[in-house]
Amino acid sequence: MNIHIDAAFDSGNIEVLEISGSGARLRIRHDNESEFYQWFHFRVAGAAGQELELKIGDLNGSAYPLGWRGYRACVSEDRSYWARAETSFDKNEDGGTLTIRHTPDSDIAWFAYFAPYSLERHHDLIAEAAASEGVAYRCLGHSLDGRPIDCLEMGEGSIPVWLIARQHPGESMAEWWMEGALEALCDPADPVARLLRQKCRLHVVPNCNPDGSIRGHLRTNAAGVNLNREWHEPSAERSPEVLALRNAMDETGVRFVMDVHGDEAIPANFLAGFEGIPSWSDELGAQYQRYRSILERRSPDFQTAKGYPIAGAGKANLSMSTNQLAERFGACAMTLEMPFKDNDDLPDPEQGWSPERSKLLARDCLASLVEWLEG
Ligand SMILES: [Zn+2]
């Protein structure tokens, strides 16, 4: 009896080349009109008690080949709890092959690059937050496929704070982070949220790229455009998602902004700043460094030793949100990167980096913002 493999669902992505018994040869579909591929999400049926051997090939050409080294695939049988499966990578097998071995207890198991965050769950998140006391809903605009760019607003203070996530749709940990942030911000009893809402007006966009999310893309929108390379000149034709966001920010101004992402290769949580922008000042740079230091002290899951190389003077890429928003508004802007793998400083052999840990990190980010504002 052969297993069955399906991916025709929300954020599904896999192509089946061959199935033989409990083994399969697979490929990842490219993002539409794009060369990027790395996100996978599929289910396997008919394998209770049998050891699966799932081989995803052609990965040396994927967006981040270094992401496969030391990576373990996510697996769930109830679509709620996501563990890690035994996984190995051989760059010399079939153009780079990830081999996943797993023996499911029940007859259906789900595999994904990271625990998925479905568009249905996104709508639940928006609905629940919008129904909370003191929270206003605002539609910023629409995606190319006509989906709303949802924004939740709260707080009576004057400091404009923006939190945005999932410009890169395959980085689903970013929306798990948002779920943690919104649970705190919408809780009238949460002391961190109460202080933030007293001092700030918060604008929260949990998913900047709903089309890419439901299509099972790694990095782009419906037209294959990388939204985090559009911030210098977003357009209605290519990147209406960014155009809507940037226009809304032009109305409110921005004092502090965090853009939430996931990183394929580096096994750590880290921030990237805006070094190299034309209007760089040591004073604004010090504000960013101070936030980073506060978060490092507060969260054992955050560190500052590992991260991206820093741009030289005048070399910042202004098509990226963090650089553009620091330049445009003099904002303390930053990109938060969470790992697809694990935080190697505090590893969890069972789950690796997970939805649960992403949500907890969001709480520490908000508490750090309170401390930053008070300093
Ligand atoms: Zn990203």
From TrEMBL:
Entries under Gene3D superfamilies matching the protein = 2.60.40.3120, Zn peptidases
Cofactor field: Zn(2+)
Q: Which residues form the Peptidase M14 domain?
A: 115-375
Q: Which UniProt keywords apply?
A: Carboxypeptidase, Hydrolase, Protease
Checking Pfam families in the record gives: Pepdidase_M14_N, Peptidase_M14
Q: Which GO terms describe its molecular function?
A: carboxypeptidase activity
Catalytic residues, chain numbering: E337 (proton donor/acceptor)
InterPro entries referenced in this protein's UniProt entry, alphabetically: Cytosolic_carboxypeptidase, Pepdidase_M14_N, Peptidase_M14
Q: Which protein family is named in the record? A: Belongs to the peptidase M14 family.
- According to UniProt, the name of this protein is Carboxypeptidase family protein
